[in-house]
Amino acid sequence: MNDLDTRHEPDGSWRIAALALVEALGRRGLDARLCGHGVVRASNPAGEPDPDDPFGALMHPGLRQEVLCHRRDGALWWLWVWTGPTRQSPPELEPLCPAAETDKAAERIARVLAVPFTDSSGGS
């Protein structure tokens, strides 16, 4: 557990949680960036296609995951963002963990993006 307490911060406190998550994901060997309004996009460089293979780049999207920091029952939570069932559907959101639990969120995301037999997943 982290000391990050986001329960009593004003709107926009998602930014503190998001920056902490970006840092925690980076420590686990993942690329992560804050995309605004609580969205963090993470990717595993080990899952990217070979840059010299144009077919691989076209057919393989790589290992990526998006999460959203949003209020849920009065507290900030990390939510998984999953593609909806059709292209026209909005994304589906699934609770991941409270935003204050940065390490737990980072570990779970690292597990989803893990590539077996590489060190890029942080040893998960």
Q: Number of helical segments?
A: 3
Distance from first to last alpha carbon: 17 Å
Shape: globular
Strand content: 25-35%
Across the major sheet, the strand order is: 1-2-3-4-5
The helix-strand sequence is HEEHEEEH
Q: How much is the radius of gyration in Å?
A: 15 Å
Which structural category do the helix and sheet elements fall into?
A: alpha+beta
Number of separate strands: 5
Poorly predicted segments: 1-10
How many structural domains does the protein architecture include? Answer: 1
* Largest β-sheet summary: 5 strands, antiparallel
Helix content percent band: 25-40%
Could you report the average pLDDT, rounded to the nearest whole number? 84
Explain this structure.
This protein has 124 residues and is of the alpha+beta class. Helices cover 25% and strands 30% of the residues. The protein is built from three helices and five strands. It has helices at 14-27, 54-59, 102-112; strands spanning 31-36, 39-44, 63-72, 75-82, 92-98. Mean pLDDT is 84; it is low at 1-10.
Short description:
With 124 residues, this protein is α+β, with helices and mostly antiparallel strands.
